[in-house]
Specification:
453 residues, mainly beta, 4 helices, globular, binds CU-O-CU linkage, binds copper (II) ion
Length: 453
């Protein structure tokens, strides 16, 4: 919070047009300026071959993790190393477990072969002290992420997560930044402990503040005179991120480029969601705000917080990029429903179709089947729905039938809302279906969809 306040003070001093001083050195010498935000360090490629990305990841405890507290990290860093590959590459990961607990790695959003999906359903997690090798081919471009899928709520919360960038060589080369958002500090009130009581008290589990790559209210420096492609991930296990900035240009969601530029007033990232945005900065700094947004009711009262400023030495903003958008009409809802998932809960127990994981009915669909899924939320909180190993088209959501084409792997379901999806079941295996509010998943809001060969 202190950093945020000093940032505001800085811009107040620097901004008046009558100020003859250049805005670059406005802070008195004994007051530290806002901290710098830098992209997470990238993993070293251990294989000289062009089409193989071979990395080594060690999950281990760290004394000073998020917010200076003891936690867990991959290769000692939070966020973990960014893995950067190109479509068609083979990813090889040597995973070493130096935690005092079992763990796994799940590849969120990636169409991995089922035995590489890192879930503990019908397979044992990696025991402490053990290592394993994970390998698969990367068939899709986009911003994905990796995190454990064992004791997920706690392990992600302690700092085990990182970004996987898969580049498409046909997209223009634009400098990028990887920005991982996580919430820090005590929540004002964690509604999960006592949802009913806190709903009566109008208390909301709003985060104290957001960290971007571990920094609150920091400054990201854009390469002067160039556009910046920012890859955003909400890695929080519970908090919704509602971002607002002037002149929003959103180019991609969970599963790569959108069919056209999107310019939303607010970009909502539920836990697990990604988006890519284009920042054109020059002259004035760009300020990125997080609006208060509650999982109990959406937009909430309170002050927006500056979570990040983007600055550039260039005097004017660069020109926008010509992204190779492929215009795609929104899908047409066929009207029938093959599978229905009802989200229920009362703050004590969180269920899908009245069942608590692992005591669940495994639904099956045939390989190659087009499957219409309806999500219905009859509980008092929102839930981000996530399906492993696949992506799906959004047919309709709380706002009505889709007006644009959206391919996602995580989709938010508002309170009392219905969301309809079209899934092409093209990846055989037993895939986890769950709420990405990780305490909910942990408390049972998870099931399995079998895609049968
Ligand atoms: Cu990112 Cu099963 O989750
Ligand atoms: Cu949930």
């Amino acid at each position: 919070m202190r950093r945020f306040l000093s940032l505001v003070a800085v811009s107040l001093i620097a901004c008046p047009s009558t100020d003859p001083e250049p805005p670059s050195d406005p802070t008195p010498s004994d007051e530290p300026g806002p901290a710098e935000v830098v992209s997470p360090e990238e993993a070293e490629d251990l294989d000289p071959a062009d089409d193989i990305l071979h990395v080594s990841l060690t999950a281990a405890p760290v004394a000073e993790g998020l917010d200076g507290e003891a936690g867990y990290a991959y290769n000692g860093q939070i966020p973990g190393p960014t893995l950067r590959a190109t479509v068609g590459d083979t990813l090889v990961v040597d995973l070493q477990n130096d935690l005092d607990a079992p763990t796994t790695i799940h590849w969120h959003g990636v169409h991995v072969p089922w035995d590489m999906d890192g879930v503990a359903w019908m397979a044992d997690p990696l025991a402490p002290g053990e290592s394993t090798t994970i390998t698969f081919t990367l068939g899709q471009a986009g911003t994905f992420w990796y995190h454990p899928h064992f004791d997920t709520d706690s392990q992600v919360d302690q700092g085990l997560y990182g970004v996987l960038v898969v580049e498409d060589p046909d997209e223009p080369e634009v400098p990028d930044a990887v920005l991982v958002f996580d919430d820090a500090g005590e929540h004002h009130d964690d509604g999960d402990d006592d949802g009913a009581a806190s709903a009566h008290a109008h208390a909301d589990p709003l985060p104290d503040r957001w960290l971007v790559n571990g920094v609150a209210g920091g400054v990201l420096t854009a390469p002067p005179g160039q556009p910046l492609r920012a890859r955003l991930l909400n890695a929080s296990n519970i908090a919704y991120l509602a971002l607002r900035w002037q002149g929003a240009r959103v180019i991609a969601h969970d599963q790569g480029l959108l069919p056209a530029l999107s310019q939303p007033e607010v970009l909502l990232l539920a836990p697990g969601d990604r988006a890519e945005v284009e920042w054109l900065v020059g002259g004035e700094d760009l300020q990125v705000f997080a609006e208060p947004f509650s999982l109990h009711g959406g937009a909430a009262p309170g002050e927006a917080e500056v979570v990040l400023s983007v600055s550039s030495e260039a005097p004017t903003p660069p020109a926008a990029v010509e992204w190779p958008f492929v215009a795609t009409p929104p899908p047409v809802d066929p009207g029938y429903t093959d599978l229905r998932y009802v989200f229920q809960g009362d703050g004590e127990q969180w269920m899908i179709n009245g069942e608590l994981f692992p005591d669940v009915t495994v639904e099956s669909v045939g390989l190659g089947a087009e499957t219409i899924i309806e999500l219905r939320n009859v509980s008092p909180t929102r839930h981000p729905f996530h399906l492993h190993g696949h992506s799906f088209e959004v047919l309709s959501d709380g706002a009505g039938p889709a007006t644009t084409y959206r391919l996602e792997d995580t989709v938010d379901v508002g309170i009392r809302e219905v969301v309809r999806l079209r899934l092409l079941a093209d990846n055989p295996g037993d895939w986890m279906v769950h709420c990405h509010l990780l305490p909910h998943a942990e408390q049972g809001m998870m099931t399995v969809l079998r895609v049968e060969e």
